[in-house]
C-alpha cells in the first residue's frame, strides 16, 4: 500500500524521472504481491463452494432415488397382494391357439384391445338388464334415452388403459395378461423361425435366379445357333460366304416397319435393345460369327414370341435376297441380249416389236404359259393398252369372249386371214429355230459363265460337276452367243460379230452424213448425248420380221402424250435416274423390267433360255430402219444441245432472276448482228412470234426466248448460223463481276424456294418461310441492309359480303413482326390500297414514298402518321396462263432510314421471287388435287376389290444429297380400308434403307408397273406419270398372301388405275396451261371439281360403254321371259333414276312394265344425264333398296355386259348425287356464316408467321381472273436509283 501511495505521489513521480529503470518496470504492468494473494483466496473460495453444492445435490438425488424404489416396491407388493385376492378367468385360455398364422394379431388384440373392450361389453349388458331392454315380455326393446353405441364409446374413453388401472381388478383381464405373456413368448420363439424362413426364401430366390440365368443362357445359345443357321439362308454362293451389312440393317429396319402392325402391348416389347445405325454404304460384309453377333446385339432383349416373329421375318428377307440374286443373274443376261438386239447402237429397242415377240412366244410355246404372264394383259402392257375383253382362265390361257370377237373390225379379220399362211410358216420356222438354239443357249450359259456367277439352281459343292458339263457343252465355233460376265467386270461387252455389224453400220452412217450438209455439222457430238436425246418413230412391223402383221391392243387405244426427247438435262436433279415412259421405245432398264414382268414369279431355266433365243432370233431391223433411227438420234442430239446453250444464254441475260427478258432489249441486241444486215429477218421473226403468242406482253419467258432465237436462226443463211449467232449474243451480254456475284446468289435463293416446294409434300409453310428468307437475305446483302417486311395475299371469292366486291385478297402469310396486324385479314375492293390495281393491271406497282401517296391501307393502326415513312411495292402472282391469283407486298416502313427506296435490280428480283413462288405454289396445289383424286380412287378400289389388304401412295421427291430421289408416304389405308393422310413427321423411303422394297424404286426408275413380293405379301407398284411420261407418284397395292386376285377384281383395279392415270394427266395438263375440261354442272367450282373428278371420269367411261351397246344388247335383255333377280334389280335401279314417281308407285315390280322402257331412248338418257345438274336431287333410298342384295362380284360372274355397265353407271350416279348434296350443304352453311368476322383484331398476337393453306379457297372463276395487259417496265425509279 505504501508503495502504491508513494508511486501515486507527485514528488515520487518527479523523483522517478531520475530512475527510468524502476519507472519502466512499474509502468509495464508489474504485479503487486498484495493483489495476487487476494485473487488466489477468491479462487479457492469458489472451488470450495462448488464442491459443497455438488455434494448437497448428490445427497438429495440419492434420497429421491431411494424413495422411488421404496414406492415401486410397495406398488408391486400391493399388486401381488391384489393378484392373490382376484381369481383368474379360465375363458381367456381360448385365445391360446396353435395357429401360427394369427399369433401376431392375437397378441396385439389381447394386449391392447380386449381387456378394456370385454369389460365395456360386460358393463353394457348390465345396463341393458337394468333397463329391462332384454326382457322377452317387453313390447318394445327400444329406449329413446339409451344408445348402446354411445354408452360403449363413453366407457372406452373413460377407461383408457393409459390413464386408468380399473380394469386390472377384473379376473378376466388378469387372465388376459397371462395369455398375452404366453403369446409374446411364442412370438419370440417364432422370430428364430422367421430368420430361418428368410434364409430359406433367400435360398429359393437364389435358386430361381440361377435357374433363370441358366435358362437365359440356354435361350441365348439357342438364339445364337438359330442366327448362325439363319446365315445359311442369307449366304449366296457368289458372296464368298459373307453377307453385306447393309442387307442386315435393311432387314432390321423393315422388321420395325412390320412391328407397327402388332398390337400396342406387343409393340412396346418389340423394340430392339440397340439403336439402329445409318445404313452402311462402304460395302462391308460379315462372316457367320459376325453375322450372329450383330443380330444378337439388337434382338437379345426381345421376348421369345417376338423373336420367333423376327426369325420368320428374317427368313422372308433371306428368300427375297436369294430371289434378288437370281434376278440379277437374269438381268445380266437380258442386258447382253439388249446389246445384241440394239443393232443401231443408240440404246433403244422398239417396244411394239418386243411386245409382239412376247405374244408370238406366248402363242407358240404352250408349255410356258403356266409360269409366264399373258403379254396381252396388264401388267405386261399398260392399263390403257390392255384389252378389257381379254380374260385369263385358270391355266393362264388368254381367251376372248364371243361378244368381243363379234365386235372386231372386219378389216382386221381380213388382214389376219390374209397373213395366216405366212404367220403359220413363220411360227413353225421360229419354233424350229428356238428348239435348235435351246441347247446352244444352255451351252452358252454353261461355258461362258465365270465361276463367280452361278446357275439359278446351283447348290454348294457342285462346282466339279458344273465344270464337267461346261466342258462338254461348248458352243460351236462361229455361233453368236450372249456372254455372261462377272459382276465386277463390264456386263455390256459385245461379241465380235455384233461389233463387226456396228462398224459396218457406222461406215454407212458416215457416208450418209457427209452427203447431207445439214447433218455434217456438229459431228463431234458424243454418242451418249445421242442415246439420251433419242426418241425415234416406231418402225413399221412386217410379217417377215415378226411373223405377225399387227400388234394386238385394245380398241380405241390412243397415245396422246407428246413425244419428248430423253435429254439428260430435262429431268432435273430429282429425276436424274428416272426414265420417261415411251410407248414406242425401251431403254435397257425398261427392257429388262418389262421382260422380268413377262417372265412372272419363278421362271424355269428352260423357259428363260427359250425366251432369250426367241428374242435374239426374232428381233430384226432393216437397214432403212437402222439409218432412220441413227439420223433421228442425230437430230435429237443437236436439238438438245441447242436447248442447253439457249437456256444458258437466258440465265446469263436474266442476271437478277426475274424469269423474263425485255423483248425490246433482246431485239435491240439482235439488230447489231452482222452490223444490222439481218434486221429484216429479226423483224419478221418478231412478227411471227407475236402471232403465235397467246399473251400480248413485251416480256419473253425462257420458252418464248428459245422460240424467238430459233425463228431467227432458221431464217439465217448458211449452215453454221446457230453457233455464230449464239456466240455473238453471249459475247455482247456483258455483266460486271459484282453483277455476276449478285446474280449467282439470287439464283441460289430462288432455287431454294423450288427445293422447298419439291420436298414439302402438300404444305405451303416451308415455301412461305423460304420466300421470306430469300427476301431478307437479299435486302441485307444487295439492298443496302434494308429492314423490310413482306406479306402474301391470295384471291378468294367474296361470298360473305358480295356488295364489297366479287373477290377479296386474304393475307395468308407475312413476316413475324406484322402477324398480329395482317395475318388472315381480308382486303376488299372498297378499301384503300394499290393491291387490286396491281391485280387488274397485272404488273408491279411501286410507291417510293408511302406517306405522300394517299391510297395506302395501313393495317398497323398503332403506328403514328409521322412513322409511316418508307417504300412499298406490290408484285402480282401469276399462274402458267399469266392470270393473277394473288399479290406479294414488300415494304420498308420498319426501316429507320428515311430513304429506304427500292431500286431497279431489287424490283426485278422481287418479280423473280413472285414467279418462283407462283411455280412452287401451283406445284403444291397440284399435288393436293392429285391426292384428293387418288383418295377417291382408293375408296373405289377398296369398295370393288375386297381382297386388296392395303394401299399406300408415295410422292417422288428429290433427295437431300446426290442425284437420287426419295419416296414420301402421303396416304395409306386404315384397318377398315378408309384412306387416311400421312401425319408429320413424314415417312421418307430412301433406296439404301429399303432394299426389300426396291420394287417401288424400280417402278419410278422405269415408269412401269412392277409386281413383287415384300415380307411375304404380294405387292403391285403402279406409277402415276406427268405429261412427260416420268413418274411423279407411285401407288403401292398389297393383296397380302394372295398371289392373284379374282378376275373381276383384277379387272376393276385396272379400270380404276386407268382412270386415275387419266385424272393425273388432266390435272398436270391444266397446270401446264391447257383449258379445263368441264362436263358436269357441279364442276363450275374448282374445289367441287376435285371432289367429283374421278367419279366424273368413271361416268364418262360408262357413257361411252353404254353408247357402244347396240340394239342386239338391249334385245338380249328383252329376250328374258323371267330374268335373273340380279339383272332385274339392276334394270329397276336404272329406271328409278329417271322415273322416281313410277318407282315409288311400284310400276317396276312387273317385268313386263320394265321391258317397255328398255330401248334406245334409255341409252340416250344415260349418255346425257347429269346427276349434279338438278336443283332438287333425287332421293337415293329407292335405288339403294333395289341394289342392296346385288353383290358386285355376282354381277361380273353373270356375264351380261349391258347389266355390268348399267350397274356401274347407277353406282357412279349415286356417288355423284351424294357428293353434290354434301357440297351444297357445306356451301349453304358457309353462306349463312357471319359476314363481319373478317378483319376483327386478334386478342392475342399470332405466334406463327404462316397459316394453314387449307383454311381458305384459292379457286377463282375465269371471269374474275384478268389476263396481263401489255406492260413495260414503267416503274418510276429514276429519282432514287
TrEMBL record:
List where Polar residues composition bias occurs: 33-42, 566-577
Question: Upper lineage ranks?
Answer: Eukaryota, Metazoa, Spiralia, Lophotrochozoa, Mollusca
According to the record, the residues making up region (Disordered) are: 1-44, 383-520, 554-577, 1225-1248
Annotated source species: Littorina saxatilis
* Coiled-coil regions listed in the entry: 173-228
GO molecular function per UniProt: calcium ion binding
Keywords, A to Z, come to:
Calcium, Coiled coil
Q: Which Gene3D superfamilies match?
A: 1.20.920.20, 3.30.450.40, cAMP-dependent protein kinase regulatory subunit, dimerization-anchoring domain, EF-hand
Composition bias of kind Basic and acidic residues appears in 463-477, 498-520
Q: Where is the composition biased (Low complexity)?
A: 7-21, 412-421
Which ranges are annotated Acidic residues under compositional bias?
383-396, 485-497
The molecule here is called EF-hand domain-containing protein
Domain EF-hand, residue spans: 641-676
Q: Which InterPro entries match?
A: EF-hand-dom_pair, EF_Hand_1_Ca_BS, EF_hand_dom, GAF-like_dom_sf
